[in-house]
Design brief:
By secondary structure, the chain is α/β, with parallel strands linked by helices. The chain contains two helices and nine strands, in the order βαββββαββββ.
């Protein structure tokens, strides 16, 4: 199953990598943080790590470390605009509860 990007998210990532002039994809993971226990970490990757798991959606690579995959399996990353705000939205089927501010979650 893995992790996927919506078409909008893939276009946003591809455009940003092009503007940066470098990058192999998007690195997605989780870390212990926040009031609910886990938080997403997201960054552009300039190189592959030896243990990276690689998923590709709409021509964009998503790189995930093996430990994070257990929390992210089946997640779709979307890019949304709500009013004047825009950003990534995580559609993660593993989430059991989220904090009120939406910054952290638990599984």
């Amino acid at each position: 199953m893995g992790v996927t990007l919506s078409e909008k998210a893939a276009k946003h990532v591809a455009n940003y990598i092009t503007k940066r002039g470098r990058g192999v994809g998007l690195r997605l993971g989780v870390r212990t943080s926040g009031c609910s226990g886990m938080a997403y970490k997201l960054e552009f990757a300039d190189e592959l790590a030896p243990d990276d798991l690689i998923f590709e959606s709409h021509g964009v690579k998503v790189l995930i470390d093996p430990k994070s995959l257990a929390y992210l399996e089946g997640t779709e990353l979307d890019f949304v605009r709500e009013g004047l705000n825009e950003g990534f939205k995580f559609n993660n089927p593993n989430v059991k509860d989220e904090c009120g501010c939406g910054e952290s979650f638990n599984v």
